[in-house]
Amino acid sequence: MLLDIDSSILDAMNEGIILINYKAQVIGHNKASEAWLPLSNAAILTIRRFIAQGLVGITQFPVQVDLLQDSNAVSPLGVHTWLCKNSMLDYVIFIVSPLQPVAHLAPVAKTETTDQRFMALMGDQIRQKIAQFHALTPTEMADTALKANILQIDALLEEIANLSVLKQRDQVFSSERIDINELIRGVFNQLELTNYHEFDTVKTPQGVIYGDAIWLSYAFNVLLAALMRGLTPKGSLYVKSRQLGDFVVVSGRSVLHEPKMSEQNYPSPDASQIESPEKNETLHLAARMLMCQRICELHGGFLKMEFQPVTCDTDVARPVDSFVLTLRSGLPEHERSRVSCSECRLNLQAQAYAADIAQLLSNPAS
Amino acid sequence: MSQILIVDDHSDIRRLLSVTLGKDFSIAEAEDGMAALEVIRRLPPQLVLLDVMMPGEVDGLAVLDAIKSDPKTKSILVAMITARGQAMDSEEARRRGADAYFVKPFSPLQVVTWVRDKLK
């Protein structure tokens, strides 16, 4: 069981994840790591030494640790065990093997709830990163690319833990009636975007969105913050929303900077670029953008972003130049797309009708 | 004969209500909020059975707001028929002026009883 994170995300993975505190005590783990527990005394001492060295800056995380020292077990061929510092989850040990197949997402079950779908998508984010790890060549395995991949997985895990703490309620994904303009204005206020920044709504009737206000607020926070990162001191930020058929279209752009460069997907950080705390922060920005894309998809939305051109080699999370987010209005995505749910409701409705008829037949006078 | 407007994006639900009420009342149907507003402007009906979540720019609550804010239509009785079964959803609809709130799957008998009681 993992603290603050739905265990279903990580239990389906072939890769082991062990959460430990600063005393090297295990505070959580997924199923794949069970064979590695309990940690041997020698491993615990080594981990404590790394943690102490990390605190005074002698050791830079992630660092490889030998979990099987002082035990009779033989480390499976090609298995790597890495210790990472995670600001949300203290310390995390990743047990990964390029020889193991990547756990793929099960197809979306017809009876799957939106909560389960959301968790599956979040888990998919981590698995995508692990798949990249598996694709590394032997040379890259021994090189900085390996470290970079471990850091990216760690950053994603941290973001998911962060969001899990943020939610803390019965339903992970709720279906609220959201006035999207009100929500965006709220995000403008949160980010204190007042001077030189505008939010416009075209004066046409605009539909409501059925979805999760917390997740959508998070997505707009990430998008607007990404636009802000690219602003020059005299730059401005414009966000506009309008209704187009059954969709609400929200577009945002920053102005007064260099020519833009089109790109569909958010660029993945390069291994050689990850060294300093500043660069680690960009890993989190990249992780947030991925989460943002998934949240939009869960709302039946389509997010297209254009990024600013690379200005220097170390800029692994380029600022967003503009974005267009299209969201379906008036009907939640899960109501629209999941035929099985609709069929299920109709079956229940038919049963209710049959019960009424039975009641009427038993009381002909009524 | 009193006129009832049934608004739901699911044709099966519209048909069920239409068959159930069609013997005693004149029935009009609309599949989304915009079409409902057009029918209400044209007829107007005495009572509206209204779904909440429908595709497009006007959902059920927006139709309810339009009905209850217009002096010409505010006397129309409105019953919400929706899958949204939480107490806060029902309270929100009633705050906006809904006269009744039925949660899917609803009992057609209860709906008929309510409609007959209101339009007798």
Report what the structure shows.
The complex is a heterodimer of chains A (366) and B (120). With 366 residues, chain A is of the alpha+beta class. Chain A has helices at 7-11, 41-55, 114-134, 138-141, 144-167, 180-190, 213-229, 277-298, 333-337, 339-362, and strands at residues 16-20, 26-29, 63-64, 80-86, 90-96, 176-178, 197-201, 209-211, 236-244, 247-255, 261-262, 302-307, 320-328. Chain A folds into 2 domains: 7-167, no CATH class; 176-331, Heat Shock Protein 90 (2-Layer Sandwich), CATH 3.30.565. Helices cover 40% and strands 19% of the residues of chain A. In chain A, the strands form 3 sheets. In chain A, strands 7-9-10-13-12-11 form a 6-stranded mixed sheet. In chain A, a hairpin with a 2-residue loop joins strand 9 and strand 10. The longest helix of chain A has 24 residues, at 144-167. The N and C termini of chain A lie far apart (57 Å). Chain B contains 5 helices and 5 strands, in the order βαβαβαβαβα. The model of chain B has no long low-confidence stretch (mean pLDDT 92). Chain B has one domain (3-119): Rossmann fold (3-Layer(aba) Sandwich), CATH 3.40.50.2300. Chain B has helices at residues 11-21, 33-42, 60-69, 87-95, 108-119, and strands at 3-7, 26-30, 47-50, 77-82, 100-103. Chain B is an alpha/beta fold and 120 residues long. A 5-stranded parallel sheet of chain B has the order 2-1-3-4-5, with helices on both faces. In chain B, helix 4 (87-95) links the parallel strand 4 (77-82) and strand 5 (100-103). Chain A binds chain B through residues 175, 177, 205-208, 210, 243, 245-246, 328-332, 335-336, 342, 345-346, 348-349, 351-353, 355-356, 359-360, and chain B through 9-10, 12-13, 16, 32-33, 53-59, 61-62, 83-84, 92, 104-109.
